[in-house]
Design goal:
This protein is α+β, with helices and mostly antiparallel strands and 72 residues long. Helices cover 54% and strands 14% of the residues. The chain has helices at residues 21-26, 30-48, 53-57, 62-70; strands spanning 7-11, 14-18. Strands 1-2 form a two-stranded antiparallel ribbon.
């Protein structure tokens, strides 16, 4: 699958990552293109922001159990 490069814009110190609808629509595997975009932009934003990715990514299922306990 060919790589689709997102457009990155710098506005007042903030970075915006953009993936065109056309790039996804015309891709041979649109799901894979979108997932790759989301994963790479998440990683770039988390790293740039100094997030503790290991703590955030350790056990995504933990969020499900917290939602069940706090449901109204």
């Amino acid at each position: 699958m060919p790589k689709v490069k997102p457009l990155a814009l710098l506005k007042g110190g903030a970075v915006e990552f953009l993936l065109s609808y056309e790039a996804v629509r015309l891709a041979s595997d649109p799901d894979a293109v979108l997932i790759e975009f989301l994963q790479t932009t998440y990683a770039a934003a988390a790293d740039r922001g100094g997030s503790d990715r290991a703590a955030l990514e350790t056990d995504p299922a933990r969020w499900d159990s917290r939602r069940r306990h706090h449901a109204v």
